[in-house]
Specification:
Largest sheet: 6 strands, parallel
Distance between the termini: 49 Å
Radius of gyration: 19 Å
Helix content: 40-55%
CATH superfamily: Flavodoxin domain
GO molecular function, one term: oxidoreductase activity
GO cellular component, one term: cytosol
Pfam families: FMN_red
Order of helices and strands: HEHEHHEHEHEEH
Structural class: alpha/beta
Shape: globular
Strand content: 15-25%
Protein name: NAD(P)H-dependent oxidoreductase
CATH architecture: 3-Layer(aba) Sandwich
Length: 208
């Protein structure tokens, strides 16, 4: 039996995986926010990671209505649809959140609450920043919220304690080594979970 032809045929395991689509959510819209510095830092690290495509969703630009209703007006519906399509297209999420009064920002909760199926059976990771706690109290609350939405939250996070002192005026991290290493560990987990759950959704659509 001639097995030469069969051995040269491509198989599913040898084909390159499609890039993982990661929606990066910037969760603060406060005046003078530090979030864009964190977003630029994270997106630069994600760009170094093979197999990832990022899409930055900024709650300040999304400007979603705070009143949750089944019948939003035309302008509100258009803004919602633009965000909903991007969340639905994502295979995974990374939430960038500060800590305000021991919790996460209201505009981030608004974005979360406007959506349901878009989150399901996908991983969510966190990059937090703040004062002495580094935003970790906000992250712990977000884990509970996202568990209700049928997501898998990634164990490892990146947190910036006293964040303003860690970056120079040009937005460069003064001591990048530890944070870069933490970002790589987290992104490795995002890719693992994101790829596994994407394959699972293709094989069997998730039913909440």
């Amino acid at each position: 039996m001639d097995t030469t032809a069969a051995s040269t045929q491509p198989t599913a395991s040898t084909q390159p995986a499609a890039p993982l689509k990661v929606a990066v959510i910037l969760g603060s819209n406060r005046d003078g926010r530090f979030g864009p510095v964190i977003a630029d830092w994270f997106l630069a690290r994600a760009a170094r990671h093979p197999g990832i495509e990022t899409d930055l969703i900024d709650v300040a630009e999304a400007d979603l209505p705070t009143r949750i209703t089944f019948s939003p007006g035309p302008e509100e519906a258009a803004r919602l649809a633009a965000v909903s399509e991007r969340l639905a297209a994502a295979d995974a999420f990374v939430v960038l959140t500060p800590e305000y009064n021991h919790s996460f920002p209201a505009p981030l909760k608004t974005l979360i609450d406007w959506h349901s199926a878009e989150w399901q059976a996908k991983p969510v990771a966190f990059v937090s920043y703040g004062g002495i706690s580094g935003g970790l109290r906000a992250v712990e609350q977000l884990r509970q919220v996202f568990a209700e939405l049928h997501t898998v939250t990634v164990r490892d996070t990146v947190s910036f304690h006293n964040a303003g002192a860690l970056f120079d005026d040009a937005g460069r991290h003064r001591d990048p080594g530890p944070a870069d290493a933490a970002a790589k560990v987290m992104l490795d987990q995002v890719v693992w979970w994101g790829t596994a759950l994407r394959d699972a959704r293709i094989a069997r659509p998730y039913g909440a």
